[in-house]
UniProtKB/TrEMBL annotation:
Keywords: Mitochondrion, Transferase, Transit peptide. It is found in: Mitochondrion. Coiled coil: none annotated. It comes from the Eukaryota. It comes from Sparassis crispa. GO terms for molecular function: acyltransferase activity, acyl groups converted into alkyl on transfer. The active site is at residues 298, 344, 401. This is Citrate synthase. Gene3D superfamilies: Citrate Synthase, domain 1 (1.10.580.10), Cytochrome P450-Terp, domain 2 (1.10.230.10). Pfam families: Citrate_synt.
Length: 463
């Protein structure tokens, strides 16, 4: 096993060396970051020095008891979420990213590497920079032996998200940041070790996630080795056992790239930010984030949506009409449940990520002919009016999860419980990016003030 592994590592590193030579004039992601960090540090210094006392908004009692909705309290560089326009990555909307970010060779969709480059540096990478990053990640992607033993020792019935969090946390055995901190490094060097850990973690996530899938759903099936000529998601799909399905590979490239970051206030992003602020290494910080992602109001919603859609299909049978869907929506709402895949903590319009996935379906006749995907489209026509009439949710429109799972299901990836793991592979792009920036900017320990109800009442009486 060891010799096979090291042979792969050698061949990958030979390829990587060749690539470095071929793209000698190409910047590495570290060099690209080194170029942009000083300007951001200067910007933060200016803000602190000249605008430290500027007011960004009021804190109302409803914010404190309402999950801090709308409070502008987290510094997050990678993306900004506008309630009406949706997500923008350094100013680029999803359609703009689709136009400008490099795809995989032979593919059309954005890939994780080009999105990571944009998130980290704020710049659109060249084709060559993207390929170089793919090779760097492939070179680092092999799982250490102890992680394989750990994951193989877990009951395959343990929820895949629990397994993913455990594997990610245990990868901190090799944390460059933790080791350097113990040696006693300068604060100005924190970000370089955070970047090393972040790239290593991202590189290893596909093999970890694929091993969890194999153990749970295809026990004993060999997992293909990492191919140095493939992008991160190309390798992931290959290791999952679906490498010959080009459309699924392209779908996952798109899904993983556009789902990679959704500003800093969502539960997983906020969790990694908080834990990282204690100077926990990126592995532990992201493991914590994964357990936030595992909640049904957040990442687990994609598995809930498909379950709900299948139940609806069972109940209404082949007679899919707007009236039947409407009745089923009311049945869900009257039983006190939420309609999964609808609503959002910030968005007040249809989610552009949903629109991008729907567009992907619209260009493929096999997807359009799938009854579940037809159901998703029809639900989109009916649900907003029903949710408006119901009158509770502030956003009656679909979010990304309304469409994400049914496409996976169509392509044969039918194990709902696994879907949030794919989200977990994706969201690492944004959470790890911000960890690098938080350390580069020297952000402090996060420590908001809590208040009791008595304190709130006395503050109301004596402001
Ligand atoms: C995403 C979500 C958690 C946001 O929650 P939020 O910020 O509290 O949303 P709102 O402020 O609009 O909620 C106000 C009320 O509407 C309800 N509501 C929100 N979305 C709803 C939905 N899809 N179906 C039914 N009711 C909904 C809330 O439960 C809340 O009810 P309450 O006052 O009885 O507690 C929520 O919309 C939801 O549960 N959606 C379904 C799960 C989902 O798709 N999650 C993935 C998010 S990307």
């Amino acid at each position: 096993m060891f010799s096979r592994t090291s042979a792969v590592a050698k061949s990958v590193s030979r390829n990587a060396l060749a690539t470095q030579r071929r793209f000698a004039s190409t910047k590495t992601i570290r060099e690209a970051l080194e170029e942009v960090i000083p300007a951001k540090q200067a910007q933060l210094k200016q803000l602190k020095a000249h605008h430290g006392q500027a007011v960004l908004g009021d804190i109302k009692v409803e914010n404190v008891i309402g999950g801090m909705r709308g409070l502008k309290t987290i510094l997050w560089e990678a993306s900004v979420l506008d309630p009406l326009e949706g997500i923008h990555f350094h100013g680029l909307s999803i359609p703009e990213c689709q136009k400008s970010l490099p795809a995989a060779p032979g593919g059309k969709e954005i890939i994780a590497e080009s999105m990571l480059w944009l998130l980290l540096t704020g710049k659109v990478p060249t084709e060559a920079e993207t390929r170089q990053l793919s090779r760097e990640l492939a070179q680092k992607g092999e799982l250490p032996e102890y992680i394989k033993i750990l994951i193989d020792s877990l009951p395959p019935t343990l929820h895949p998200m629990t397994q993913l969090g455990m594997g990610v946390a245990a990868l901190n055995h090799d944390s460059s940041f933790a080791a350097a901190y113990e040696r006693g490094i300068k604060k100005s060097e924190y970000w370089t070790h955070t970047l090393d850990d972040s790239l290593n973690l991202l590189a290893r996530l596909p093999a970890l996630a694929a091993r969890i899938y194999r153990n749970a759903y295809n026990p004993g099936k060999p997992i293909p080795e990492i191919n140095a000529d493939l992008d991160l998601v190309g390798n992931y799909v290959n290791m999952l056992g679906y490498g010959d399905n080009h459309d699924l590979t392209e779908y996952l490239r798109l899904y993983i790239a556009i789902h990679g970051d959704h500003e800093g206030g969502n539960a997983s992003a906020h969790t990694s930010h908080l834990v990282g602020s204690t100077l926990s290494d990126p592995y532990l910080s992201y493991a914590a984030a994964l357990y936030a992602l595992a909640g049904p109001l957040h990442g687990l919603a994609n598995q809930e949506v498909l379950r709900w859609q299948h139940n609806m299909q069972k109940e209404i049978g082949s007679n899919i009409t707007p009236e039947n869907i409407k009745d089923y929506l009311w049945k869900t709402l009257k039983s006190g449940q939420v309609v999964p895949g609808y609503g959002h903590g910030v968005l007040r319009n249809p989610d552009p990520r949903y629109m991008a996935l729907q567009q992907f379906c619209d260009t493929r006749p096999d997807l359009l002919a799938d009854p579940v995907i037809q159901l998703v489209k029809l639900t989109y026509e009916v649900a907003p009016a029903v949710l408006k009439e119901h009158g509770k949710t502030k956003n009656p429109y679909p979010n990304v999860d309304a469409a994400s799972g049914c496409v996976l299901y169509h392509y044969g990836l039918t194990q709902f419980k696994y879907y949030t793991v794919i989200f977990g592979v994706s969201r690492a792009l944004g959470c790890l990016t911000q960890l690098v920036w938080s350390r580069a900017l020297g952000l402090p320990l996060e420590r908001p003030k809590s208040v009791s109800m008595d304190t709130i009442e006395s503050l109301i009486k004596n402001p």
